[in-house]
What does this fold into?
Amino acid sequence: MCGIIGYTGHRPAIPAIVEGLRRLEYRGYDSAGVAYEEAQGLQVIRAEGKLGALDQKIAGLDTASSVCGIGHTRWATHGLPVERNAHPHMDGDCRFALVHNGIIENYAELKAELMAEGNVFHSETDTEVLVHIIAKGVDLTGDVRRGISWALSRIDGAYAFALLSREHPGKIWASRKASPLLMGIGTGENFLASDIPAFLPYTREVVFLDNGELVEIDAGSWQVFDAASLEPKAKEVRHISWDVQAAQKDGYKHFMLKEIFEQPKVIRDCLAGRIQKGRVVLPELDALEVPGRLTIVACGTSYHAGLWAKYLLESWARIPVQVEIASEFRYRDSVFLPGDLVLTISQSGETADTLAAIRIAREAGVPILGLCNVVGSSIARESDAVVYTQAGPEISVASTKAMCSQMVLLLLMTLTWGVRKGSLPDGALQRCLEDLPKLPEALERELPAIRDKARTLSQEYSDARSFFFLGRGQNFPMALEGALKLKEISYIHAEGYAAGEMKHGPIALIDPHFPTFAMALGDELLQKVASNLQEVQARGGRIIALVNPGAAPVVEDPWVLPDVWGPLKSFLVLPAVQLFAYEMAVYLGKDVDQPRNLAKSVTVE
Ligand code: M6R
It folds into this structure.
């Protein structure tokens, strides 16, 4: 939700900032803006709409001499997505310019106070309140650092912000609480950003900022303070192995397509070093007891990965599992038992609701295991143990390869706990360890054909206004994921349903214009699914069904996937539903990587 960036150094700031914003645009894209230093003072340029609109405004300006600035790409929370609400915002005297990600919860009360003191506001945003209150703090304390500290003591809510001061050329201040912010440390230049790809072309040396920290940077130095006491804090500089290419489209038309086609590599990367001498190597779990009961908490696609894992964990590791939507879990009065473990799953590691769930578990004294993709993210840092998914940067708003990586790691966790409990079915470990490493090659071979079929079918069904996605067992979460992908990027209404539940109401919707996308793979539930599909056909419903060669139900559009063993089937089902949604969105002319109303990282509740 919103991307922020700051640059101070030796190169022209604006091109570096705009390039960084392009890499952060997945976080929000309803408006964008930059502020930079010039001889006459701070300049602010803002534009409604995507970054291209800002680019056009900047194109006519001579910004080359400015070597310090900040930028923002917005996902609206307070105020319409129009230029006056775009960031950066300034105080009344234009002494400060500020970009912000998060929500200032007590902004209305602070705004009333500031207005009573004569301040004039030009936007409906909470952010404008933040820059005004900081200006007031600086006036009261006579110093920027102390002024920010004072202002933050007045603020409730979540924030990551970066601030320029007209009186201090070359300097940027920033702070965070519950919204992501990190520093990129270069040579003669330093960066601040919401996410690593923003500065990846310039440096891979990163400092992750913690809640309640305040940072001051210039071209040659950086310092971190406790925002309340202003005591200096020592921070570790970490080297990030992601490369620039991983954060680029690499010849693909969309990030989503690239990321779907990266799944074979993702599986390889997730398995690297994890299978040795017939065993699963997952030392991250060593310090944790095998859970007596597992509560998986996540949102969106990560939630579906958790649901998928529940079937395996219960059957193979005999661990009772409940899978919870984080936004519900956080406001329920959950009952915890001795031996419980909370497992949070998140690609970004910054999802606000999932983070809140961690805090609830912590208060209840329940150990927390994080499964996430972004090294050093909040969820990673707030968990007792963390397993990283090795998916590389996921840029497309629609999550694809992250789910694949989560499934691999969840499978390895199941095997680890199953071995420790002695509960694995005969041959399951050996079969997994033999077949998992073969999966990337099989997937590489099959992906082009899956894409072709997805393209043909999406065109054939492009007039549908609604879809059911049906599956049983582990294909039920796959059905939920297929429906989420389709609605998220093609804006076609879709419902994922447990196939056996259709007859309890939803089947009333079926008619020749309401098609069904079914998972009818060759597993032990195939006959049950086949009966459910007959019920759909009996009501005139058209069906696309993912099937394996051999005994498949007779439907209008069978989509044959090669057969692989047991739970590994899902690794072929997943790209099929992803590519179906992708091709549908492309055919309908939708903005695949940046679907309307969404943002990649949901850091507000
Ligand atoms: O970063 P997270 O995995 O915590 O994100 C969770 C959801 O916001 C995310 O999966 C979302 O549902 C995706 N846009 C789905 O494609």
Q: What stands out?
A: The longest strand covers residues 96-104. The chain has a mean pLDDT of 93. The chain has two domains: 3-248, 258-587. The domain at 258-587 is CATH 3.40.50.10490 (Rossmann fold).
